[in-house]
Write a structure and sequence with these properties.
By secondary structure, the chain is of the alpha/beta class. It is 31% helix and 22% strand. The protein starts with 17 loop residues before the first strand and ends with a helix.
């Protein structure tokens, strides 16, 4: 998968100029790989004139090894829309950081409502570290994290986002409370199990996707997007068509134009093959 625009499509061929895919739970299977069938369907779409673009909540340091393994050389939207990354050149084109003063105030407001939170944070940049505080539950896997021993270190360098967990509240409940009490200070989104994030206000996957699409000369009206979590809702609103995976969060299914098979059952390929005819 190159992620670059292919030859001009002929009349009546593939109906979209841009195919935007989330990574986890969407493009990637549960084992972290992309199936041969999905690779072939994406290659066929790009050969028909479309561009494939990865749009992920992961920041660049947690994304680039996947893109390298895929042979992906185009643009990727990372960090929940805050980063536009050129995979072929290993270069960060744009980056939006979180106002740390506002984030600290937002955390104080949330904790005043629900009690102490478990915290982690993603630092800005190509090599930005993910800091993990005491008790914060990380997912198993190869992604590197740095233990946060002193709470003050959380704010010592520019951040893309702050991750929050609660000892007893569900992700949905925590995201709801955070939005209610701090939504005027920061953006709040849920990107997966145990992943509630505080972001720069107004930032979403749609923000970064629109910037990347402009660089590719593509329009929202010519974009199909695939996703599985509430953080994909703005991307679906921006794109002409939104396709949710079979096991997607119910909030995303509610706004999707279509529900396809799961990520482990080649849900992206199922749709692309149909559109390719």
């Amino acid at each position: 998968m190159t992620g670059t625009t292919g030859p001009a499509a002929s009349a009546g061929a593939f109906p979209y100029e841009l195919v935007a895919t989330d990574l986890d739970g969407t493009l990637l299977r549960s084992d972290g790989t992309v199936s041969a069938r999905t690779r072939e369907a994406l290659a066929a779409a790009t050969a028909a004139g479309a561009a494939h673009i990865v749009v992920t909540g992961r920041a660049v340091p947690w994304t680039r090894h996947i893109l390298d393994d895929l042979g992906y050389e185009g643009l990727a939207v990372c960090g929940q829309g805050g980063q536009v990354y050129h995979a072929g050149e290993h270069r960060l084109l744009t980056s939006v950081t979180l106002d740390r003063q506002l984030a600290g105030l937002a955390l104080a407001k949330i904790e005043a409502e629900v009690g102490p939170l478990l915290l982690a944070a993603s630092r800005d940049g190509l090599d930005g570290e993910v800091l993990v505080g005491p008790g914060y539950r990380t997912q198993d896997g190869p992604l590197p994290v740095v233990p946060l021993k002193d709470a003050a270190d959380l704010w010592s360098a520019p951040l893309n986002k702050v991750y929050v967990q609660h000892p007893t509240l569900s992700d949905d409940a925590l995201a709801t409370v955070a939005t209610q009490v701090a939504g005027g200070l920061v953006g709040v989104t849920m990107a997966g199990a145990g992943i509630v994030e505080l972001l720069p206000l107004g930032l979403s996957k749609a923000t970064g996707l629109s910037l990347a699409a402009r660089r590719l000369g593509a329009r929202a009206a010519d974009t199909i997007a695939f996703g599985d979590m509430p953080n994909d809702i703005p991307m679906f609103a921006w794109a002409a068509r939104g396709v949710a995976m079979a096991d997607a969060h119910e909030e995303l299914k509610a706004v999707a134009d279509e529900v396809t098979s799961s990520n482990d059952e080649d849900g992206i390929a199922v749709v692309l093959e149909r559109l390719l005819g």
